[in-house]
Amino acid sequence: MKAFYSDTFVLPLPEGHRFPMAKYARLREAVIAEGILAPQDLHEAAAAAWEDLALVHTSEYLARMAAGTVAPEMMRRIGFPWSPAMVERSRRSAGATIAASRAARVDGVSVNLAGGTHHAFADRGEGYCVFNDVAVAARVLQRDGVRGPFAVVDCDVHQGNGTAAIFRGDSSVFTCSLHGAKNYPFRKETSDLDVEFDDGTTDADYLPRLDAALDAVQRIRPSLVFYLA
User: For residue 159, which of 228, 113, 88 has the smallest C-alpha distance?
Assistant: First the structure.
């Protein structure tokens, strides 16, 4: 199995701020140390091309992100200060999901160790998400002639609001999100299937509802599934 990473670009932050994405580098180190993947199975991702990002994101948003002219209030919603390294790393995160999607079609399964940027909308980013990697990868595959439907199974504790909004009304991509009912984002979007959980939910409550959600996904007979862990 091939795995892709995009954690080599360090983002400068103001003094006293913590970089929340350092977990991805630690994850890459851990899967090697624990023998889950061999070093030769890990591949540094190329950056997603701007024309790939434009399959999902608006031209104005991309132009402002490239030039560093994004409004301060939008950057606050994203959670990072703008820098060329931030843009490069975000492009590489999307590029890694594109690469993993293509590898999965050959090998059956593949992983992006630093993806899941599901809070990014077509015209803005939120919640440490700049570009929506899964949406971009799905549109790239569609552009390249891969037949769907595709499914997104999002088990992040936060709803994949950006993904739901991007694919709203699009029968070629089925969006499924299992998430906490009372956490971020506090204004939820509408996925094709939303499964909400109360705080303190245990495995005994969670797993049967996950099984039911996967049954619903299976009924559409997807040609490719994007799973957000």
Answer: 228
- Residue 57 makes CB contacts below 8 A (sequence gap 6+) with 120, 122, 123, 131, 132, 136
Q: Is 57 a catalytic residue?
A: no
Q: What's the farthest any 2 CA atoms get from each other in the chain?
A: 50
- Retrieve residue 69's tokens: 């002219």
Q: Quickly count: other Cβ atoms within 10 Å of residue 57's Cβ.
A: 26
Q: Which of 31-35, 117-121, 196-200 has the lowest mean pLDDT?
A: 31-35
User: Higher-confidence residue: 21 or 148?
Assistant: 148
Answer whether residue 7 shows pLDDT above 70: no
Spell out the residues 6+ positions from residue 212 whose beta carbon is closer than 8 angstroms to its own: none
pTM: 0.92
Candidate list 17, 43, 57, 119, residue with the active-site label:
119
Q: Hey, what amino acid is at 2?
A: K
Please tell me the predicted confidence (pLDDT) of residue 199.
Answer: 96
What is the C-alpha to C-alpha distance for residues 144 and 128, in angstroms, rounded to an integer?
29
Q: Can you tell me the distance from the alpha carbon of 98 to that of 217, in angstroms, rounded to the nearest whole number?
A: 21
DSSP state of 10: P
